[in-house]
């Protein structure tokens, strides 16, 4: 599909899907999957639930995937020889 036709088809398709809207004041972000809204809502609701757990690292994350990505900084292989600040 080309340009405008593709845009019209995508808008028609996406417009027909159920939307899950964030109810936080002045946010209103929409998602097509309920679990994405749940993950997004953690941004508004306070302390992130996923803690690093390495000694002397106080980092916390809103998603488990972000925590997994962060853990690389603690590897001994030197993949990312950075330390937490």
Automatic annotation (TrEMBL):
SUPFAM superfamilies documented for this protein: beta-beta-alpha zinc fingers
Molecular-function GO terms, alphabetical: DNA-binding transcription factor activity, RNA polymerase II-specific; RNA polymerase II cis-regulatory region sequence-specific DNA binding; zinc ion binding
CC terms in the record's Gene Ontology section: nucleus
One of the protein's GO biological processes: positive regulation of transcription by RNA polymerase II
Domain C2H2-type residues, every copy: 20-49, 50-79
Record's keyword terms, sorted: Metal-binding, Repeat, Zinc, Zinc-finger
PANTHER family, per the entry: PAIR-RULE PROTEIN ODD-PAIRED, ZINC FINGER PROTEIN ZIC AND GLI
Protein name, entry field: C2H2-type domain-containing protein
């Amino acid at each position: 599909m080309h340009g405008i036709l593709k845009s019209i088809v995508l808008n028609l398709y996406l417009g027909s899907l159920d939307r899950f809207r964030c109810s936080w004041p002045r946010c209103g972000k929409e998602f097509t999957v309920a679990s994405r809204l749940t993950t997004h809502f953690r941004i508004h609701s306070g302390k992130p639930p996923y803690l690093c757990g390495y000694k002397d690292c106080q980092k916390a994350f809103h998603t488990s995937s972000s925590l997994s990505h962060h853990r690389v900084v603690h590897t001994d292989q030197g993949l990312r020889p950075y330390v937490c600040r």
